[in-house]
TrEMBL record:
Its main location: membrane. InterPro entries: CbiM (IPR018024), CbiM/NikMN (IPR002751). Pfam families: CbiM. NCBIfam families: cbiM, PRK08319.1. This is Cobalt transport protein CbiM. It comes from Ruminococcus gauvreauii.
Amino acid sequence: MTKSQRTIVLIAAVFALSFGILPAANAMHIMEGYLPAKFCIAWGVVCVPFLIAGFFSIKKTLSGNRKLIMILAMVGAYAFVLSSLKIPSVTGSCSHMTGTGLGAILFGPAAVSIVGLIVLVFQAILLAHGGLTTLGANTFSMAIAGPLVSYGIYKLCNKLKVPKLVSVFLAAFLGDLFTYVVTSVQLAIAYPSADGGFGASLGKFLAIFAATQIPLAIIEGILTAIVIIGLESYAKSELSDLGFLRGRNA
């Protein structure tokens, strides 16, 4: 990212902060009209600097190798399919895999913010999954917060010389779970319990989500590792261009 691009991202971040960010809480695939307007607007503003950074990240990656657009498209399709397979959970939301860990590992979390936004728009319009008014909140949780954790876990495992497929599994698994932790926080802030307030509400949401989300997160980790194995077999040169194969363990 050039100095001018970093300046633009910084300005956007300052704008978001000055607007008045809520505490770090977010939601994923919350249905249309479920969040109060102030939450919808606030989370949309919070997403702006991340999306700008994502645009520059994708532009830089593709300008270096146009062939990588096929891998990027595959990452988007993977996220679209996995996150469309939903199981009803807490009122106003649902449990499902996210599919964003793969993109975070290959392209970095910034690029996934754009990919995730596109996925969420198509799901809201074509599948009535999520919503346009809640797009900002859903984008932050699935396309920003979760991928950041996935990327951080993968890089940490890389430094600790954890075997590659184990690193991929942990990154996808924990990124998925983190999405639902922040989903619970978001819902608890928007709808605190009448008896116990935010803390009581958060505990209830976390407990309910855990029953369905932990098994789904395990499945996502396994599927993501399998996809990586496939890419290493059929798209090794593209993975090399992305720097994925550099200095990795078997």
